[in-house]
């Protein structure tokens, strides 16, 4: 029977994900020569060619992709085995590390942790603020057990490494200067603001969300100012420098926009939303500690939606 070496298969998977031997070595804290040697040994063990030259780099052969398709099922089963062992050994205790984007931390993660403490005091939830790209790198590397992100920036449901759990559809409201002519207008629509100067990030998720929402409403927003943080965005709105879309989940920043200098308006029709999801390594969702944290996050999301 062919010998399947889990460690070498993990190296092959990392090469597929990272693209180069050098990047694979950096991710796994190995030398490039050690990576190459391990993959060469795996090819000999399996009796197939796994890599082929592609310019100055290498790429995976069809045989390598076939091997990894089956290996993903093995990795998922190992995650399930680890989850069951954790249930047997730990019971109520355990540590769950969560990576989440900035507005999800106070709105979803903190309420979930607070709800878990009385019933499960032995459950240790560690939180790390991280945007989607970093969060999924941490999840893939085993440095966190849960990653929260916007659905548009999460791996697809077809990704064999992760399982996705929908949490929340977060409405986007519009922040206007207090003296704006449309600040009190009934039936405000996003299209009514097509000629306004807009404030949003120069790149990244929020730039894409704002642009996509405005384009769906029939116009391309004129970006008058660029900022990444809600404090800066709302300060500029309150100063009369432009308008901005603000996620309702950004509770603390949203309160800043309802002061004497700014007004937060709910759009009456075609309200854009951003969808928030949690992701785990496939199979790990069956672990009791991870399952409890997921359940608490779902409950926090339901409570958040009930407040909207």
What does this structure look like?
The protein is an alpha/beta fold. Helices cover 44% and strands 22% of the residues. It has helices at 6-18, 21-28, 32-46, 62-90, 104-119, 132-140, 205-216, 230-238, 251-256, 288-307; strands at 51-54, 57-60, 94-100, 123-129, 146-150, 162-177, 197-199, 222-225, 244-247, 262-265, 273-281. Strands 3, 4, 5, 6, 9, 10 and 11 form a 7-stranded mixed β-sheet that branches. A two-stranded antiparallel ribbon has the order 1-2. It is globular, with a radius of gyration of 23 Å. The relative contact order is 0.15.
Please render the helix and strand layout as text.
Elements: H1 6-18, H2 21-28, H3 32-46, E1 51-54, E2 57-60, H4 62-90, E3 94-100, H5 104-119, E4 123-129, H6 132-140, E5 146-150, E6 162-177, E7 197-199, H7 205-216, E8 222-225, H8 230-238, E9 244-247, H9 251-256, E10 262-265, E11 273-281, H10 288-307
Helix pairs in contact: 1-2, 1-3, 1-4, 2-3, 5-10
């Amino acid at each position: 029977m062919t010998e399947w070496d889990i460690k070498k298969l993990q190296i092959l998977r990392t090469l597929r994900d990272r693209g180069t031997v050098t990047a694979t070595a950096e991710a796994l804290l190995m030398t490039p020569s050690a990576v190459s040697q391990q993959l060469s040994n795996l090819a000999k063990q399996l009796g197939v060619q796994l890599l082929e030259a592609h310019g100055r780099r290498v790429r995976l052969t069809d045989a390598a992709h076939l091997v990894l398709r089956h290996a993903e099922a093995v990795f998922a089963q190992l995650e399930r085995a680890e989850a069951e062992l954790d249930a047997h050994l730990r019971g109520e205790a355990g540590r769950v590390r969560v990576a989440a984007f900035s507005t999800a931390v106070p709105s979803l993660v903190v309420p979930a942790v607070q709800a878990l403490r009385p019933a499960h005091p032995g459950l240790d939830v560690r939180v790390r603020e991280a945007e989607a790209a970093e969060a999924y790198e941490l999840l893939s590397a085993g440095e966190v057990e849960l990653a929260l992100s916007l659905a548009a920036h999460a791996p697809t449901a077809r990704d064999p490494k992760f399982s996705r759990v929908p949490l929340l559809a977060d409405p986007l409201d519009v922040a206007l200067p207090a003296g704006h002519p449309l600040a009190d207008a009934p039936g405000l629509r996003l299209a009514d603001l097509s000629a306004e100067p807009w404030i949003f990030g120069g790149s990244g998720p929020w730039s894409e969300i704002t642009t996509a929402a405005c384009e769906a409403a029939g116009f391309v927003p004129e970006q008058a100012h660029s900022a990444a943080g809600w404090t800066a965005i709302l300060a500029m709105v309150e100063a009369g420098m432009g308008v901005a879309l603000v996620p309702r989940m950004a509770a603390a920043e949203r309160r800043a926009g309802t002061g004497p200098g700014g007004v937060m308006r709910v759009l009456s029709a075609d309200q854009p939303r951003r969808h928030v999801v949690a992701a785990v390594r496939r199979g790990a969702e069956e672990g009791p500690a991870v399952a409890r944290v997921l359940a608490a996050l779902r409950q926090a999301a339901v409570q958040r939606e009930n407040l909207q």
